[in-house]
């Protein structure tokens, strides 16, 4: 395990095709980032997407189980702001 600042990291082996390594190296050269940083960011995005999908599923399930009965202008306004803030 390697410690960078206060965050300990564990090194792991990842097998990639020659094509993926070439694309990874091109991206690293173009952006000035390391292979590790690009791979780490991609994994973080993948896992965040899964976590966010589960949160969305639970919210929908909760509103399906217990629907909101009356019009709530504050909730509607907050929902519109949250939707507008999404990085679609």
Give an overview in words.
The chain is mostly helical and 88 residues long. Helices cover 66% and strands 7% of the residues. A hairpin with a 2-residue loop joins strand 1 and strand 2. It is elongated, with a radius of gyration of 20 Å. The model has no long low-confidence stretch (mean pLDDT 89).
Which characteristics define this entry?
two-stranded antiparallel ribbon, 66% helix, 3 helices, 7% strand, 88 residues, mainly alpha, elongated
Quick recap of the structure?
The protein contains three helices and two strands; from the N terminus they run E-E-H-H-H. The chain has 88 residues and is mainly α.
As a whole number of angstroms, the C-alpha radius of gyration is: 20 Å
Count of distinct strands? 2
Whole-number mean pLDDT = 89
Q: Helix/strand-derived class?
A: mainly alpha
Describe the strand arrangement of the main beta sheet, using strand numbers: 1-2
> End-to-end span in angstroms?
37 Å
SSE topology string: EEHHH
Q: How would you describe the shape?
A: elongated
- Give the helix level as a range of percent: 55-70%
List low-confidence stretches.
Answer: none
Largest sheet: 2 strands, antiparallel
**How many separate helices?**
3
- Our estimate of the beta-strand percent is 5-15%
Write the layout of secondary structure elements.
Layout lengths: L1 E3 L2 E3 L8 H14 L3 H31 L7 H13 L3
């Amino acid at each position: 395990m390697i410690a960078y600042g206060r965050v300990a990291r564990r090194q792991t082996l990842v097998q990639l095709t020659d094509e993926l390594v070439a694309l990874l190296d091109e991206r690293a050269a173009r952006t000035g980032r390391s292979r590790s940083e690009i791979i780490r960011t991609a994994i973080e995005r993948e896992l965040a997407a899964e976590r966010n999908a589960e949160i969305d599923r639970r919210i929908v399930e909760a509103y399906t189980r217990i629907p909101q009965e009356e019009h709530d202008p504050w909730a509607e306004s907050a929902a519109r702001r949250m939707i507008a803030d999404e990085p679609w």
